[in-house]
């Protein structure tokens, strides 16, 4: 018996084409990413993604079901989810900002698991977070490990991922960074989600109009203030530090005035996630113990009761969000 049938193309990305298909062995729908093995060459990033996805198992990380070769294609079989976080916010904007706390908790739990295995994602953004709308309540899951790396490597690529979610150490050319770059990106996502709501689209926390790394740095410093050697030892020695930057008059602004839907506890967590000095940035594990998540369980139960009216979506309506790598 053929295992995967009823294949339908969902979309394509840099590494190949993604299909939905029915897994006759497991009795469920799956997503299959097919990559052409032209001349038997598979990129290092794709090899890394395949290896990591096969070896990470967590409820808040998209599950790799199988890997196989079909003709000239290498195929990765993954659980099929309905939509990414960005699409979810558009379709179910009435669920925001109430669901933000649950989704942030899911994101941090996935990161805590990854970071416990010394894995850095390096490309967290709203389109690399998928939402299982069939679970009660909806479940957020991390996907796209094409840029992931092992933190034990003493020298890493100086800049990865999507610019608007890049941590300041990325933008300043650091190569000895680690898990804090993911926490920064998660903080950007947290701030972005907090501004979503009925009839409101919100926007990225940083870099909406930035065209260069310097533009983005100035955007960050315009909100959080510029670092100094006192607040971030060694920052002026980073490769892309601009001499005199600390004297340009950047002063931290009141985050309460920017993120109006967050209470004081939420603002405190956001500040800790968006700490300029990576060595002082909160960890995923510590963030999960923050006061902001008090009462998250009761909120999860409340949201679960709305499942049938807000979050029901058939798998046939799914769109491809597996193709960005």
UniProtKB/TrEMBL annotation:
It catalyses: L-seryl-[protein] + ATP = O-phospho-L-seryl-[protein] + ADP + H(+); L-threonyl-[protein] + ATP = O-phospho-L-threonyl-[protein] + ADP + H(+). ATP binds at residue 34. Keywords: ATP-binding, Kinase, Nucleotide-binding, Serine/threonine-protein kinase, Transferase. Residues 4-293 form the Protein kinase domain. GO terms for biological process: G1/S transition of mitotic cell cycle; regulation of G2/M transition of mitotic cell cycle; regulation of gene expression; signal transduction. Its EC number is 2.7.11.22. GO terms for molecular function: ATP binding; cyclin binding; cyclin-dependent protein serine/threonine kinase activity. Transmembrane segments: none annotated. It is an enzyme of class 2 (transferase). GO terms for cellular component: cyclin-dependent protein kinase holoenzyme complex; cytoplasm; nucleus. It holds the Pfam family Pkinase. Belongs to the protein kinase superfamily. CMGC Ser/Thr protein kinase family. CDC2/CDKX subfamily. This is cyclin-dependent kinase.
